[in-house]
Design goal:
alpha/beta, Rossmann fold, 6-stranded mixed β-sheet, 6 helices, globular
Length: about 140
């Protein structure tokens, strides 16, 4: 999967497709995504651990978005935003716990990808802030304002 990251532009968000059961659902998801700055990676049946291992050494990649089984079955689709942050990236265990206070993943609408990716890349906002906002919504999905 890490070879799938080759050719990613500096400002591209990464959408990793792990579910291939419904091609129509995939096409609808792609149509709902922003048109620019999205890099697609095919990773059939990859687990979250596989994704984290493959993205660990990617430069400037603090979050990836998974088009998993839940994404493909939800209407409207909601991708899994997954932080690439590891305990080793933090000052200590307390820092890691604070930055992943709401968990290492949350769901986002396709329209949330540019906002999340840009703000995390620039350091304007943290993953934990987006995860908290997702948690506050009735369906647990972040939607960009």
């Amino acid at each position: 999967m890490s070879e799938g990251l080759a050719g990613r532009g500096d400002f591209d968000a990464v959408v990793i497709r792990t579910d291939y059961a419904d091609e129509r659902a995939w096409r609808a998801l792609v149509a709902a995504l922003p048109r620019q700055h999205i890099h697609f990676v095919d990773a059939p049946s990859a687990s979250i651990e596989d994704v984290l291992t493959a993205t660990r050494d990617a430069d400037d990649l603090s979050v990836v978005f998974l088009a998993d089984t839940t994404t493909m079955r939800s209407d409207p689709p909601a991708l899994l935003a997954l932080t690439t942050l590891t305990p080793e990236d933090c000052e200590d265990a307390e820092d890691y716990a604070r930055l992943t206070e709401y968990g290492p993943a949350f769901r986002t609408a396709p329209t949330g990808i540019p906002d999340i990716h840009a703000n995390l890349s620039l350091g304007n906002l943290g993953f934990e802030e987006y995860a908290a906002w997702a948690g506050e919504s009735p369906d647990g999905v972040y939607r960009s304002a």
